[in-house]
Specification:
The protein contains two helices and seven strands; from the N terminus they run H-E-E-E-E-E-E-E-H. It is α+β, with helices and mostly antiparallel strands. It has one domain. It is globular, with a radius of gyration of 21 Å.
């Protein structure tokens, strides 16, 4: 026991040194982190609203909302940033809406910590992953429904095999933000 007490000073000093190093790295890189997050948001807005050249930022019901304009200065659509619970931690997404608020133009996941190889498919596109592409063209006037296999009914989103919870959480975030923000956007029109 005496040896443990005599040598514990090394563990304490190393703990303090590493804590100071981590705090310094966080402080030194904070501006870069904020810039990268802003760039990711701008890219996501451009992906979910086709033809956007300029945008105006609003805050509605605690969500960032972007009024997206095309090259002629006309309304190209709306983009709404939303955050909600995920399987492991929070999921941040951007939802695109048509100018008339009646259809989704896309959904893009900005930030998540879902399970690699399963839940992380909520933000990847490609031949084998159709999940994010399903939202494009769906009606924004009725809630979306998650299904394991499509039946042909209106507004069905097929879950990712092995990641049903992650699929459900994204869809819940989309349904929630549309239910809260869409009526307020219509009022502002």
């Amino acid at each position: 026991m005496k040896k443990f007490v005599d040598e514990s000073w090394l563990v304490l000093i190393l703990g303090v040194v590493f804590a100071v190093m981590l705090a310094g790295a966080q402080t030194g890189l904070q501006a870069k982190i904020v810039a990268n997050e802003a760039e990711a948001l701008n890219t996501a807005v451009s992906e979910v609203v086709p033809g956007v050249v300029d945008k105006e930022e609003l805050t509605i019901d605690g969500n960032k909302v972007f009024r997206c304009l095309n090259a002629e200065g006309k309304l190209a659509g709306w983009a709404v940033q939303a955050v909600g619970p995920g399987f492991i931690d929070k999921i941040t997404i951007v939802v695109g809406l048509a100018p008339a608020f009646d259809k989704f133009t896309g959904v893009k996941t900005l930030k998540h910590t879902e399970t690699p190889g399963l839940g992380n498919k909520i933000d990847t596109k490609g031949e084998l992953n159709f999940y994010p592409l399903q939202y494009t063209g769906m009606k924004a006037t009725v809630p979306l429904a998650l299904v394991k296999a499509k039946t042909g009914a209106e507004n069905e989103i097929q879950a990712i095999t092995g990641a049903t919870y992650s699929s459900q959480y994204v869809m819940d975030i989309v349904n929630d933000v549309i239910e809260r923000v869409r009526p307020k956007l219509i009022e502002q029109r």
